[in-house]
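fyi for ur records
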Amino acid sequence: MKTINDLSIAEISDFLVANNEKSFRAKQIYQWIWQKNVTDFAAMTNLSAALRKILEANFSIRSIRIEQEYVSQDGTRKYILRLFDQQQIEMVLIPSQQRTTVCISSQVGCSLGCKFCATGSMGFKRNLHADEIYQQVFLANELSQQHYGTHLSNIVLMGMGEPLLNLDNVSKAIDMITGKDGMEMSPSRITLSTAGIPTKLSRLAALQPNIGLAVSLHAADPTKRKTIMPIANTYSIAELVAALKDYHKTTKQRITIEYLLLKNINDSLDDAQLLANLCKNFPVKINLINYNSHPHSAFQPTTKEQQEAFAELLESKNMLVYVRQSKGQDIAAACGQLVNKRQNGNK
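which gave:
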């Protein structure tokens, strides 16, 4: 049976006409699915009972549901979401003063195998459909209002998966999140985080020039980056830098560089100098992230003193630097900790 989530308004309209129904009903159906996130044709109350039966006989509606919720001491909430085919993904809702950010997934698992990341230990299962990406945001907005009393402020594609390896579905989801037929959120509130796939960046710039881009660099030394990020064996730092230069030229956007500080691996002042040199190629903001431990990796976080020295050197080179405070560590919801594995926690 076909899934109606995959159809455009025009395709739904063609189906309706072929079944002797009015074509204008297509927009109504589309609004039920995308603007109201309805997952049952019976709930589409402005359609006739006969039409609802026709739709039910010909289509399914793909949906996600909350399997489990974990609540951190800092207010962060992690959700295990079950998909239509019983696969699971994780989504994290992060409160900060009067704002909330959702960290959403783009794939079930991940094929990149970064040594510090728990998700990489799962391997790759499948890409998420556009509606599964969109539904995470819709659900997060409802949960934000329920738990924090405010609408969702920001979206980061920084959960499970590499977004650039599912770019068609990611871009379609962003179109719906920002479009008048969807949630009408500003693209400036969306950030896509990537391990850095140079061959995909030009297409991202063409498809979504107004969203933010964050690059998980984690080492400016080519040898070190290859050690912790296998993707660096396929695409060199030089190739990545060249692609980011072109990306900035097209979008005019400041690029965020994500840098995970690993004790005695990439946290020396020499590493900081290499990072500063690399970041002179385009306007950047540098997010320094302390490592969040998990059972799938033996890395250790750098010391507070080394973190401060690293940041100070970058600042002395006129770099815009933020030391990002991880949230949700006690429920394995922090950066690099997302993996489909049940744990004890608050429901």
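The longest strand covers residues 88-96. thats all i got for now
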